[in-house]
Amino acid sequence: MNPFTYERAADAQAALTLGARPGAKYLGGGTNLVDLMRETIEHPVVLVDVTRLSREIAETDDGGLRIGAGVKNTAVAADRLVRERYPLLAESILAGASAQIRNMATVGGNLLQRTRCGYFYDDAAHCNKRAPGSGCDALDGFNRMHAIFGASEACVATHPSDMAVALAALDAMVTVEGPQGARDIPLTDFHVLPGDTPQIETVLAAGELITAVTLPPDVRGRSRYRKVRDRASYAFALVSLAAVLEVQDGVVKYVRLALGGVAHKPWRAKAAEAALLGAPATEAAFRQAAQAELASARGLQGNAFKIGLSERLIVDTLVKLAALQEQR
Fold this sequence. Notes:
Number of strands: 12
Strand content: 15-25%
CATH architecture of the domain at 222-326: 2-Layer Sandwich
Oligomer: single chain
Shape: globular
Helix content: 25-40%
CATH topology of the domain at 222-326: Enolase-like, domain 1
Structural class: alpha+beta
Strand order of the largest sheet: 4-5-8-6-7
CATH superfamily of the domain at 222-326: CO dehydrogenase flavoprotein, C-terminal domain
Distance between the termini: 61 Å
Order of helices and strands: EHEHEEEHHHHHHHEEHEEEEEHHH
């Protein structure tokens, strides 16, 4: 039994004051943190409940959308403006978990999920993320769910979020507040690759609190979130894809691609985007772009199939998005 105290913050300043205490952890819906406490992976001394904070979804002055970090995932997926302007985001949330979990989980907590690698949860296993310097049993063990991009000898775990993948493709910004004030961080820069320090998962400084996620106003073309998994519901992605595509006169004018289930963070497919911009919107061009992205992928014994699976998912999704625009 690990004793801890519980505090409910009335506002952001109170949360930051409480969060500055040694051993403090912010608590949103608790759908991951409480599990980690139960498994004795997390040992907070103080739980700071921030569920009363930043629970609004509102338009920004430039026509974007600001989503409070305390908004429940269900509320985001059901919001009219999200469904009309950013259907990709709603699709990713609905693909992400059971209805019960979506009703509890918050936007901020979703971004801070920790990996579901089995070795991370097994205290008899070697895991550098749980116990830095102990090794990584996944390298030569059961690694079917693990990373093909950005991994290291220290860690091959993947980030589990679906929502974060959609936010990466949408060029979302994450607003955080901390002892040094507020700052905005591109979602694509918020999570970090493992390197030699896989226990460090984000760029958050000590005591910083996520307060909002902001979506830009200029999402163009058609979008889609697709998730390949072992069963039809409540399963983490083998590979997922958030895709945004605009085609004019048979040419790609705008494209955003992000992959999930393949890296320590949502993987923005920048090589594929660069290859596609200005290219003909054809299956051959989509395949060439996917192969350009996957040239840097490295499979393990159990997950090398993800490379071919990712290529097929990218090509098929882009073909279907392009076809939708031709039908207009």
